[in-house]
Design a protein that fits this description.
Helix content: over 70%
Distance between the termini: 142 Å
Oligomer: single chain
């Protein structure tokens, strides 16, 4: 005589219920069983979630591209402003160097004039 444990009896019962849920009833020939319906709903939910994730990823990608373009434009503008300020500073430095050179030449002439006296 075979002795079954409580777990084995419960497992056998669950398997019987699962198989009964998947079988078609004779009057519902052609109609999907509960497990098949659940599988279809799961497929539909997965498809919908996939479409929503794809849409969200596309929107995020577009936002990233827009932000990158805006950042690039701001960097270009800032670079242009920095270059203009650098040019202005270089011109100012050049004028001061010219003034210093002129002053040195004048001082040199004054010294030459004093020596020749």
């Amino acid at each position: 005589m075979v002795m079954l444990t409580m777990k084995q009896v419960l497992l056998a019962g669950l398997m019987a219920l699962a198989l009964a849920g998947c079988q078609k009833k004779s009057e519902d020939v052609g109609a999907p069983g509960p497990a098949e319906q659940a599988g279809r709903r799961l497929d539909q939910a997965s498809d919908k979630a996939g479409r929503e994730l794809t849409r969200a990823a596309e929107q995020a990608n577009q936002q990233i591209q827009d932000a990158a373009k805006e950042t690039s434009q701001q960097v270009e503008k800032a670079s242009g402003v920095a270059a203009e300020k650098l040019n202005q500073a270089a011109e100012k430095t050049g004028r001061k160097l010219e003034q210093a050179g002129t002053t040195l030449q004048e001082k040199a002439r004054e010294r030459e004039a004093e020596r020749s006296k």
